[in-house]
Specification:
Blueprint lengths: L1 H14 L13 H4 L39 H5 L11 H6 L8 H24 L1
């Protein structure tokens, strides 16, 4: 199996580029949407609250030019900058709430039991 994994890793390394990039703020549609689902109840008449200087979402244009294409050497670098402006401390703490998820807690428990069992069997057999 490892014989096939080595060429697969090299193919992945050279032919599957990293595609993370900083998106323009106007393209973050999930942040632009408000909490309403777009439907109004019969008791509330639908009102247009758009101001005159605000463009509809489908008419927004992007003024930033696309980033220049990276060279092969730039693509092979292990680190090419940060992808977000969030603080490092908050990014560091972001994975820890996952341990409260039951599936993750169960997987950690099972993995710990398997490792403990393997170590115990190894100690007994040695």
């Amino acid at each position: 199996m490892a014989i096939f994994m080595a060429p697969g890793f090299l193919l992945l390394l050279f032919f599957v580029p990293e595609t993370a990039f900083r998106r323009a703020k106007v393209l973050n549609l999930d942040y632009l949407a408000d909490d309403s689902s777009g439907t109004s109840s019969p008791s509330e008449p639908a009102t247009e609250t758009r101001t005159s200087d605000e463009k509809p979402l489908h008419q927004m244009t992007i003024t930033d030019p696309p980033p220049p294409k990276k060279t092969l050497l730039q693509r092979m670098m292990p680190f090419d900058g940060r992808k977000t402006d969030e603080s490092f401390f908050l990014l560091f703490l972001r994975p820890f709430p996952l341990f409260l998820h039951p599936a993750i807690a169960w997987a950690c428990l099972i993995q710990g039991v398997i490792i403990g069992w393997t170590v115990m069997v190894g100690v007994i057999l040695s």
